[in-house]
Fold this sequence. Notes:
Low-confidence stretches: 1-11
Amino acid sequence: MILDKKRRTPKKEGKTSRKDAEANNCRIVSELLDPESTNGDAVQSWRVFRIMSEFVQGFELLRSHGLAATFWGSARTDPTDTYYKAAEELSAKMAKNGFSIISGGGPGIMEASNVGAFKVGGRSVGLNIKLPFEQKLNPYTNESLNFDFFFSRKVMLTFASEVYVYFPGGFGTLDELFEIVTLIQTKKIEPIPVVLYGKDYWTPLLEFFKNDLLEKHGTISPEDLDIFHLVDSVDEAMKYITKEIKNIKNVQQI
Length: 254
C-alpha cells in the first residue's frame, strides 16, 4: 500500500490516475522520451542529456570543417543510376576544389556524394540516423556521427555548409529542401547557394511554386523563386557553385 499524501489514506499500488495516464499518452513521453524505461522519470530526464550530447558532438565535428557542401537525395538510388553517377562526379570535383562533402551518411545519393569525395582523397563526412529500414552508414566516410533523433541531426545538416545540393529524393529530401528555403526566405540564415539537380524531377515542383503558390494563391513572393537554382549537368552545377562562392567571399571581405 502507498499513503496518499493529500488524503492521508491508503492508495492501492498498480493503480494509475487519469492524470498520470494522460501524461503517459502524451507524445513527448511516447515518442521523444522513453516510455519503455523501467526507471521512470529519472531515465526520461537523462534522455534529454542524450539529445544535448548529439548537438555538442555535431557542432564539435562540423566546426573543424571550413568550406563545405551538403548533398541530399534518395537513399534508394542505385549505383547504376544516372543521378548516382552525377552526384559522385560533382562531389569529386568539389572535393578537389577544397570542399568538405557532407551527407546523411546512408546509401543512394548520400553514398554517391561520399564516394566522390573519398576517391579523390577529400574530406567525406556522414551524419547518419538510425532507422528500421534503408539507413546504415556507408563505408565511404572518413568522419561520421550516428544520431538517434532526427531534429538534432537536421540542425547539424542545416547549418553545416556553404552550399546545398539536392538530387531527386523522397519526403526526407523535400523536408530538408523546404527547411533551408524557409530559413533563407525568413532571413534566419544568410542566402547561400541552393542547387536543384535534375530538370525532369524538379520542374513540376517549380511550376507548382510559380503557377499555384505565387500566381494563383499569392502565398510566396516573386523573389522567393530565386532562392534556389536548377541545373541539369555536373558542369552547369560546378559553374554556378564556383560563381556563387566567389560572390559570398567577396561580400565577406567588404
